[in-house]
Amino acid sequence: MEEGAEVRNKQVIFKDYIKGALKESDMYVKTDTTRKLELPEGAEGVLVKNLYLSCDPYMRLLMTKRDTGGVFSSYTPGSPLTGYGVAKVLESGNANFKKGDLVWGPKIPWEEYSIINNTESLFKIEYTDMPLSYYTGILAMPGMTAYAGFFEVCSPKKGEYIFVSAAAGAVGQLVGQFAKWMGCYVVGSAGSEEKYMTHLLITSLGCALEQVKLLKNKLGFDEAFNYKEEQDLDAALKRESTLTLTWRLIVSDRCFPEGIDIYFENVGGKMLDAVLLNMRTHGRIAVCGMVSQYNLDEPEGVRNLMHIVSRRVRIQGFAVFDYYHLYSKYLEFVLPLIREGKITYVEDIVEGLENGPAALVGLLSGRNIGKQVVVVARD
């Protein structure tokens, strides 16, 4: 496209701060905006064409007005959503980037073309033999999150017992595979939000079933279950023994008869409470997120905290950007595993920016199978 041309710039706009579950109607697609394909004179940023956008659970947190500082800053109503994504540089006012470079980063607006002034947050893509969509997932923030949370925070040892919640998502599927690569026993839970209209309920239950099959049959987890179908999460994590009418003892191993060494926490709420009952002495919990709490006005309390003391459990929250200095080390670790077929990465890809709102809602309701990606353009 000719430099300096004025083009249509489709956008996904965030309407206003929300309470409860995200709906497609909380966003809208704007098609009447345009952008001139050139940087303002003297600009030190980059003009980019956006290619792939990442749907991530943390985005729901940004849709609630927050008056205090911290890790998360709220979206601005009436402006495009922003998140992780992959883009192609069309023009650069920064010496670190040139026209044609491919980049990924955390502040990519949900639109077709953008000017990014904060170039310090951008990573140049060096390994173009990988699918570009991987730079929204395994080769970007979710991959680094899994790597840092599991290896740096949890310090795993071969033979340990690992539990991963939201295990069919972008991060969880990698944590489980990293643990198997280390020689650990791994169980994952998956589930779908069922507080939707009846015609969506069947879809949600079907996705949960597919997620469980994915974990066991494709990703190599030792065991998996749909936590939405479990009446007693504590029992689901333990060994269940039942006596038949003929007084024959039937023993069914359900996940962790001897307890959990490492829990990679993505869900929170009742799941965390059940896990605390099943942690082994000197266990570790890496708190990556708590997606079950994001739609609640009043977060659920956790009752079994005394088990942290009695079993000397270490719980640590972490944020991925504290570990980006390890990104080169992570690539050295994961690229050979991908190329040798030792790691499988599952993506759920939708085409078209206009389908982004539905994809994000689907992610937050558990209807995705793997990493949720929105394709804006493929080149």
TrEMBL record:
Coiled coil: none annotated. Keywords: Oxidoreductase. Residues 10-120 form the Oxidoreductase N-terminal domain. It comes from the Eukaryota. It holds the Pfam family ADH_zinc_N. Residues 170-334 form the Alcohol dehydrogenase-like C-terminal domain. GO terms for molecular function: 2-alkenal reductase [NAD(P)H] activity. This is Uncharacterized protein.
